Amino acid sequence: VSIKENKAEQQAINAVPDIKKLDPRSSEWGKYFPRQYDSYIQTRKSDEIKDILKDDPNLVVLWAGYGFSKDYNAPRGHFYALEDNINTLRTGAPVDEKTGPMPTACWTCKSPDVPRLIDEIGEHDYFTGAWARFGGEIVNSIGCADCHNNETMQLNVTRDYLKRALDAEGSLKFSDATHQDLRSLVCAQCHVEYYFKPTKWTDENGQEQTAKVVTLPWNNGFAAEDMEEYYDERDFSDWTHKLSKTPMLKAQHPGYETFITGAHGQNGLACADCHMPYVREGGVKYSNHKVGSPLDDIANTCLNCHQGTEKEFKAKIDRKLERKNELAREATDILAKAHLEAARAWELGATEEDMKAALQDIRHGQWRWDYAVAAHGAFFHAPEEILRVLGGAINKAHDARLKLRVILAELGDTNYEAPAYASKEEAQELVGLPMDELVEEKKEFINGLKQEWFEMGKEKGIYDPKLREGMKLKTSFN
Ligand code: HEM
Ligand code: HEM
Ligand code: HEM
Ligand code: HEM
Ligand code: HEM
Ligand code: CA
Question: Is the ipTM of this complex over 0.95?
Answer without folding.
Answer: yes
